[in-house]
Every structure is written in C-alpha cells, then in structure tokens.
Design brief:
Elements: E1 2-6, H1 16-32, E2 35-40, E3 48-53, E4 56-61, E5 73-77, H2 82-90, E6 98-102, H3 114-120
Length: 122
C-alpha cells in the first residue's frame, strides 16, 4: 500500500496541476496492471476518532496528529518486488512535495501475533 503524505495541507484546495499530474500517474499505473484501488482523503480536521471504553463508544473530532505528516490518500498496488514498488512510488507527484510511504499488507493477522515473532527469532 502506498500512503500519500504531502507536506502541504492545501488550505485553499489541492492545485489543479497537482490533481492533473496525479490523475495521469494513476492512469499510467493502472495501464501497467498493478493499481488495485486508491483514493484521496479529506483533511484531518474532517476526521473522527472512535474508541471503546468498556461498553461506551467515544468519538473525537480530528485532527489528531500534531505533526505535519498527514495522510492525504492511498493507493493499493500489487508488485512482484520492493524495487518495483519503489519505482512506482517514485513516479507519484507527491514525491516532489512530500513522501509516499510503501507499507506491505499483512496477509494473515496471525503473523502479527507474539508467537509469530517468537517463531522468527534465531
């Protein structure tokens, strides 16, 4: 998964040129057959956090992070190698003014468990 993290929060909206470049990048990656889905996210101020405290559900209005690093969107790609994912991510327009984080998706939740970590120890 590519996590799209622009440095700018675009208070006046994302510039049209950036939108056009991103649409062209998505079209190119789809044409390669590796783009599964993706989307832009509304700003953090429009987010809602959900926690459970016992039987009570508690919601909190965003934004939550103090950092400038906010996720602006995501793209789910399927690549054979990390090198291919890096090459695809490097073509994203946000890499010129932010970062695209490559994050592998866990195939089985059990691989995150404590026993799985212990099994990998030498």
């Amino acid at each position: 998964m590519l996590l799209i993290r622009p440095d700018n929060d675009y208070p006046d909206g994302v510039p049209d040129e950036t939108i056009r470049k991103t649409e062209a990048w998505v079209a190119e990656v789809k044409a390669r057959g590796v783009h599964l889905t993706g989307g832009a996210l509304y700003p953090p101020a429009q987010s809602t956090g959900v926690r459970r405290q016992g039987a009570n559900v508690v919601t909190t209005d965003g934004p939550f992070a103090e950092s400038k690093e906010q996720m602006g969107g995501f793209d789910l790609i399927e690549c054979d190698t990390l090198a291919e994912a890096v090459e695809i991510a490097a073509g994203h327009p946000v890499t010129e003014a932010g970062m695209v984080e490559i994050r592998p998706i866990v195939e089985e939740l059990s691989s995150l468990g404590q026993q799985a970590v212990a099994d990998r120890a030498p």
